[in-house]
Specification:
With 182 residues, the protein is α/β, with parallel strands linked by helices. The chain has helices spanning 13-26, 52-60, 76-81; strands spanning 3-6, 30-33, 66-68, 90-94, 100-104, 122-124, 132-136, 139-143, 157-162, 165-170, 175-180. It has one domain (3-180): Purple Acid Phosphatase, chain A, domain 2.
């Protein structure tokens, strides 16, 4: 199973176009969107190419491949534009190995406030716009960073789960951080 992760698109058409092109090139079966899809939110500037309706249209073309969760900037109005569910605060993905991925945006559950997890479960979230791929105690923390508003001077990035390895990769193809699932 190969999964592609993206978070914090915030309605940026150029970032979404690049993300979807990389998703297509990756050969991943599913696009996991970790929230904040269409709106920039009150704490962020208006992103380059801000066009939520067109971002929604592009995402809808991949609706059958998308697993999405709600971010703190997502609303019921956003859901009206999207042809895939994205209003859940979290979702679980069960890997072929039996390992579980807990998908969330990060404003409700995160590294510091975790749901009940088993050893080697993964909590995948966005929200901080800072990439992470590491095992902390008995849990794997994974954050693909942000495709629109990366922080800490880092470039835009996305995540990939392939061959039991979680990686955060820049739009230029550089691996920022990675960790193995076991």
């Amino acid at each position: 199973m190969k999964l592609f992760f993206a978070s914090d698109l915030h309605g940026s058409l150029p970032a979404t176009q690049r993300t979807l092109a990389l998703f297509a090139q990756s050969g991943a079966q599913s696009l996991v969107l970790l929230g904040d899809l269409l709106n920039h939110g009150p704490r962020n500037p208006i992103p380059e190419g801000y066009n939520p309706p067109e971002v929604a249209s592009l995402l809808n073309q991949q609706a059958d491949k998308i697993i999405a969760v709600r971010g703190n900037c997502d609303s019921e109005v956003d859901q009206m534009l999207l042809n895939f569910p994205m209003m859940s605060d979290y979702a679980w993905v069960l890997l072929e190995s039996g390992q579980r991925l807990f998908l969330t945006h990060g404003h409700l559950y995160n590294q510091n406030k975790q749901p009940p997890l088993r050893e080697n479960d993964v909590i995948a979230h966005g929200h901080t716009h800072v990439p992470v791929a590491e095992k902390i105690d008995q849990t794997i923390i994974f954050n693909p960073g942000s495709v629109t508003f990366p922080r800490n001077g880092l470039p835009a990035s996305y995540g990939l789960l392939e061959n039991d390895k979680l990686s955060v990769i820049t739009f230029d193809g550089e691996t920022l951080v990675a960790t193995c699932l076991a």
